[in-house]
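Sequence only, no structure available. Ideas?
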Amino acid sequence: QILLVNMVPLIDLQSYNILVTEESVETATLKVIADQICQAFQEVGFVYLKNHGIPRELITNALSTSKTFFDQPREKKEQYALQPGHFHGWIAFEAERVNHDRPVFDAREGFNMRLLDRKDQTLPEKLPPEVDSAWKQLHNSCFQLGLHVLDLLSIGLGKNRDYLRQCHKKIGLGDNVTTLRANYYPPLKEIKPEQARCGEHSDYGTLTFLFQDEVSGLQAKVQDGDYVPVHPIEDTIVMNLGDMMQRWSADRLKATKHRVMASPTDVHQLRQSIAFFVVPDNDALISCTDGSNKYPDIDFGNYIKSSFNANFQDDTEN
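Reply:
I predicted one. Tokens follow.
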């Protein structure tokens, strides 16, 4: 029996968290958790993960150092600005709009970090010194957890345990844009008409981990079409699937739309979160695992570039 928290399943990863040696757990043992996760992603599309093995101090440190960076004057942050066509760098307030149907850009800032070399922690561009160690440590823990969850999804889909790992071999090695993103929602006097903190969207890749502070705002779209709150729960990670996982599973598993909204009272509060987006390798060919060809094969590298770059375009100027 899966525990539900406001319609969102709570999954216990104790038997296969990042502290567990992969070889020490039989596939048959993992099938119980794998089936729970896949059932949740068929019905709801979001889960809470508990007993994941990532230390609370690591998460707290990443959030606090993020605040230190974002609290700096704009001119200090601009030296780290994300450049067109790139995936690494600072994204200014109201510079991005993930729901292209909204007329106003999102009321948040962000910083995307990706590694080019896991071994020596090389980055594509520079990283602010105040966040360097904390973000890299969290990235590495999320990477390990991501591999474990890929195993569980593979088993749940009736494939070999390492099936999805084969398309994620280059995470942190350059030819893969898996990204750790710090989100910063500053206190506002008011929100603009039709403006979201982060507009309605589904994620592009395979799966996403989200670490929230204590301020609510995240909402997920459930089967009946309503958005329900995904409140922060201490010592849990929120996880959802991305568009590529829905394509791989031929719609068996759902990439659920979600958003961050601010109520009239919440708009005055600072909110922070850190997301870890696990995506396939750039050269991965995404094909339906059941052989149905429900979706045509696509090349992930080309897909992600066009999708990500579109978030910074102002359609009203055309």
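The two ends are 52 Å apart (CA to CA).
Hope that gets you unstuck.
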